[in-house]
Each structure stands twice: as C-alpha cells, then as structure tokens.
Amino acid sequence: MQRLYDFLRRHPTGVDSFWAVMLAGLALFWIVGEEVEDEQRPVAAVLCAVLCAASALRRRAPEKMLLVVVAVGVIQLATDVGINPADFAMLVVIYTCAANGARWASWFGLIGGLCAPTIASVRWPNEVQTQTQTQTQWQSVVSVGFMTIPFALAWVLGDSIRTRRAYYAQLEERAARLEREREAQAKVAVAGERARIARELHDVVAHNVSVMVVQADGAAYVLDAAPEQAKQALETISGTGRQALAEMRRLLGVLRTGEGGEGGEYVPQPGVEQLTDLIEQVRGAGLPVDFKVAGEPRPLDSGVELTAYRIVQEALTNTRKHGGEHVGATVRLSYADTELDLLIEDDGRGAGRELYEAGGADGLGHGLIGMRERVGMVGGRLDAGPRSGGGFRVSAVLPLKPSR
User: Fold this and answer.
1) Which of 211, 208, 210, 212 is nearest to 200 (CA)?
2) pTM exceeding 0.85
3) How far is it, in rounded angstroms, from Cα 213 to Cα 208?
4) 204, 244 in Cβ contact below 8 A?
5) Domain range for residue 335?
6) What is the structure's pLDDT at 343?
7) Nearest 10 degrees: CA dihedral of 214, 215, 216, 217?
8) Alpha-carbon dihedral angle through residues 26, 29, 35, 36, given to the nearest 10 degrees
9) Which of 128, 155, 184 is the C-terminal boundary of a domain?
10) CA–CA separation, 323 vs 350, rounded Å?
C-alpha cells in the first residue's frame, strides 16, 4: 500500500489524468443525452474536453488552467451550453489555485467561484430551479446559496492546505537554521578552546623555560667558582621544570576525552594569591621586582584571577627576554570597587615596536596578543608598549563585581 501511495505522489499528473478521463465519461453521457440540442453538441464536446484537460493539467500550471476554465465559462454563457458534469473541473481548479497557485489566482478563483452560481441562475433559470417552476424568489436565493457552498469549500480547503504546507516549511527551515547555528557555535567553541589552550601553553612554556635558561646560564657561569650557587640554580631549574610539567599535564588533560580525572596530575589554576610565589621565582632568576598591592584584597572570579596572573607572568617574561642587563621591574596590583588595575613596568631597553603591533612582522609578539585576548574575554582593557623614558609598560584594567 505504501508503494502505491509513493507511486501516486511521484506521478500527480497521471492521477489527475485518470480522474479527468472519468469526468470526460460523465460528460459524454450528458452530451449524447436528450438535454443537449443537436446543433450544440459539437461545441459542448469541445468545451467539455477543454475542461477535462484543464483538470488533468491543474497541478502543472494552476494559474493558466484557471484562465482556461474562466474562458470556457464565458463561452458557455455565450453559446448557451448549460451546466454539465465537466463543470466540476472549475471546483478542482479553484481548489488547486488556493493550494498551490499564485496569490492573485487564489483570490481570483474565489471571487469567480462565488459569482458563478448567481450568473448561472440568471442565464439558465430553468436548470437552477426545480422542474415544478413553483419556487419563490426567496427559495431561488437559497438554492443559489447552496450551489455557492461547494465553491467556497473548495477554496477554503485549498487555502488551509497552503497554510499547513507553509507552516511545515517554516518548521523545517527553522530546524535547519538551528542545526546550522549549533554547528557554528560548536566550531566557535572549539576554536575558542584551542585558542585558550594555546595561550596557556605559551604562558607556561615561555615563562618556565626562560627561568630555566637563565638559571642554567648562571649555574654554568659559577660552577667552578661557587658550587653552592650552582647547586641552588640547578635546584631552581628542577623545581621550575616540575611546575611546568604539572601545568602542562593539567592543560593536556583538557584535551583528553572520556578519561575523567584519571591518568593525569592536575593542579589548581593559578590566581592572584600565587603572584607572590611567581615574584619570588622571578627574583630567584635574577630579575629584581618591586611588588606592591593597594586596596583591600578579596576573592575574584576565576577568569579574572587567571587573567591577572598570566598578564604579570607574561610581562615579567618579556622583561627578562628583552630588557637587557641590569634591568629591574615593578608590579602594582590595585583593588578598586569595580575593577582590578595591573601595572607592570621595567627600566630596560624594552621590546621593539614590532613585538606589540599586530603580532610582529617576524611572527613574534604572541604573548602580547594572548594578553589582549585574555583581557578581552573578561571585558577589560589593555595598554602595552614602550615607556617614554625607556623600558616597557603593561597596564591592564579588569572589571570586578562591586564589593558590598
């Protein structure tokens, strides 16, 4: 049964043609009957054939078939070919225009269908009225009204089907749009997560490796003259390496799926409270840092905590890399009611302008790009560049929830 239904849906013109043949058979019985005069039969046969053809082609060209049946109706009035079974094609075409045709054709078909019974009652009163010829004027009006109902029902049925199809199409379009939006959001989320992991890896590797390089150079320099200092430097290298490995395990754990918390060593994300340890580590690597906190410290959002820590870490890493010899740095952390102010300055020679403008022509400057991205993610502002008196300056303002 389903196969038959699918076949009929794939061949709508064939189905319409079958019913057109059935309608033509009924019209043929009417034409050869006594109700049609001999001189009218050729014209009636042609008109019935055209109406049957219009019903067969109604879904291929509904607007054109509507004009055809209107023209046939006008010819019927002019040639006095009365109401016949083939006129049923007018109902079918009106329904089709309401369901599938252009909007103008739908309304034109409705108006024509509502007017047709009245016009027919005036042109062929004997066919519209009963054979007793005893109908009153009021009864004639009621009779015409009942003849108008099928045309109105055909249009209402077709228009309801049009509305339902439009509703289903809107639902399908909305579902497809939501699916596209979900895919786009998933891609954005993946790209954002990759960027976040890239920033974290850069901060961890750049900072810890730079500390290890400085300590290794110092240990090699004093290895013979001051073995104790060399030993201390090697211990710093070992501790820094373990810290870097722990943070990298935490980041790589984010990339693992289906492993839960097993199989890896995880550490809490660093925050403002860990800045003291960071400063001590940097001082141990040979960079003098003056660290001061203003305002009343209080718990912050995890995103702001991590952003503040990474900005200080990256700024001090850049100072060690680009500041030159005998460079010193200052770190100022100020708590306000609605924002956290960070100021990191050094008195070295500073980085070249290409390292903070558009990422650098030589592909460097990714740390500053990462800082701008971090600050932008929490809705803050960042200003970084060479100081007027020499050295480098990084200023960040991170929004906070108002304190109560």
Assistant:
1) 208
2) no
3) 9
4) yes
5) 272-404
6) 93
7) 50
8) 100
9) 128
10) 5
